[in-house]
Amino acid sequence: MSTHVPGTTTRSWTPSALDTASAWWLTALDRIERSGAADPAIRLLQRGIRSLPLGEARDLLRGRPLGHPVHPVLVQVPIGCWLSAAVLDIAPAGHRAPTTLMAVGLAGAAPAAVAGWADWADLPPEQARVGLVHAVSNVAAVACYTASLTARLRGHSAKGRLWSLGGLTAVAVSGALGGHVAYRQAVGTHPAH
């Protein structure tokens, strides 16, 4: 719908592809948050993680010395490496640099995951549900990047690049889910949609 201003052409508003995708995404997030299907597993996992005898390491994993969660800081290593590898896959360069970045990204994923699980264990149900999907997306990304690294090390660089693209897609979905969890944690509500 538009308002006519004298001397201008009247245009009617139509939803763009971005509006449609945004509405779909927010609806999907609402459904995940409201679905209690995984709640028994979530409660079991959260109890298990909280019961681990981590002592002061729990505070480090939660980022208390920094005054904020450490997970968002740690995810920069795998995401940065994997995104850089994707750029190098496109640019004319040797095959060694992207392979090295795959390996460093995979090594950096473990500490980021541990810190993420430590944070997740204390989330309320709505955030924990989205957080579980975030974790599944991360597992998919790690699986794709592991397959990519394996293919590259065996000399199958084209196959490695395809697996890398799958991993980057999973990382993008995971990042959007993680951002949603963090936003919900910070303000406890959705942005207007």
TrEMBL record:
According to the record, the segments passing through the membrane are: 100-118, 130-150, 162-183
Going by the UniProt record, its keywords in alphabetical order are:
Membrane, Transmembrane, Transmembrane helix
- InterPro entries noted in UniProt: DUF2231_TM
Instruction: Output the Pfam families linked to this UniProt entry.
Output: DUF2231
Q: What does the record list as coiled-coil region(s)?
A: none
Recorded superkingdom: Bacteria
Tell me the ranges covered by the DUF2231 domain, including all copies: 67-190
Instruction: Supply the name of the protein.
Output: DUF2231 domain-containing protein
